[in-house]
Amino acid sequence: MNTEFDEEEKLSSLVNMGYTVDEASLAIDRCGVDSSLVELTDFICAAQMANVADAQLSELPLEVQPKLKHSYSEYAKHKKRKLSDYEMWTKNNQNGFEKRLLHDDDETIRLPNPMIGFGVPTEPCSTIHRTLPEAAVGPPFFYYENVALAPKGVWTTISRFLYDVEPEFVDSKYFCAAARKRGYVHNLPIQDRFPLLPFPPQTIHEALPLTRKWWPSWDRRTKLNCLQTCIGSAKLTERIRKALEDYDCEPPLSVQKYVLDKCRQWNLVWVGRNKVAPLEADEVEMLLGFPRNHTRGGGISRTDRYKSLGNSFQIDTVAYHLSVLKDMFPGGINLLSLFSGIGGAEVALHRLGIPLKNVVSVEISEANRNILRCWWEETNQRGNLIDLADVQQLNGDRLEQLMSSIGGFDLVVGGSPCNNLAGSNRLHRDGLEGKESALFFDYFRILDLVKCIMTKAQ
Length: 458
Ligand code: SAH
Fold this sequence. Notes:
The protein contains 18 helices and nine strands. The protein is an alpha/beta fold. Strand 4 (269-272) and strand 5 form a beta hairpin. The structure holds S-adenosyl-L-homocysteine (SAH). Residues 311-313, 339-342, 344, 362-365, 368, 390-392, 415, 417, 439 line the site of S-adenosyl-L-homocysteine (SAH).
């Protein structure tokens, strides 16, 4: 009990100092619970420095170039008659690679404050105009998402690979009652966007009216923090209840601070006298804009529900960006959905009233694929849903075959896993080279193949 308390105290102190929960827990994990705060912050700083170094573009070719080149040489080998295409591709990309990987002015992309990207419904920024680099212009349209707070250099690299398009950083707190800071790189128009209606609840009390009765005046939160993949423990909520039960009215400031820190850290809400609780999975579903019970039942565990929801898109935010497609594709779209998860992109397009003609969805988790398939059937979709498991298996041959049968893709969406991006750890070789995060390069590889195949078909 003591050790656990000590660990949470340290975690909370580090988070208060501005480190992420992931950074803090990793440091405690590596250095041990008994380490001093100074040792822990030293570790985090060292890990951050290692990340900066890791993200230096000059280190990337060793990890990445063979991987990308390998896919293409495989593609070319199996398609001897297309060798000239492959040669063209490598030739075209030689400069691209050098430009993308060997750039030494590693200027870091600054996160905007307020984090409203190219506009949000309350501040549409109608005055912003952007000119896309020529190589970025579709078809297809593309839309890539990841966590905004990635180690230094990561967004510069992502943007450089995705045809030098500037990321749009948006916090979903401008759309709903929970924060979610994400970066989006896309080639969609940014004029005449419109939000989904009805506009979702904007405050915790509007979203969860039953909590209002128990909410103490000293807890001034009106928005939740980012909805994560795991929830606070029963032990923690019990400790909070015990810490509060000695006081009839307001607890002393030190106790208030302890409780508020925990509530912020774990997104706890008031459900009774002195009683806080983590959000229920259906509340998370609602906050993220999914239909009720979207992830419930059918064999998925509670833990997996939180995990899939914690990784997913916030529907209202993504729909706002995708809304510009509605007038362009009145007959519906063909979607390539990479890392589809529980179908954030599919749900957003459907809620916008954009018909889904053909969806090729690539998602490794069977539980997630089942969720998307159930939703597809429940919403009586008229189009075709083709589901595949692993983006790494999706090669040029298969893409060509899929594209010739459906007639190309209008939109390629994907939010690759952020496991190695959200924390920092030299030992796990974080940054974009992390095992999971490196899947970003598969997003780029597949998108570039789609572009290549579509150009050729024109
Ligand atoms: N945007 C999605 C979630 C993206 S999270 C949504 O709205 O729900 C990243 C997803 O990538 C996870 O669901 C994870 O299971 C999946 N994934 C991880 N490795 C993969 C791989 N090799 N191929 C396909 N999907 C993968």
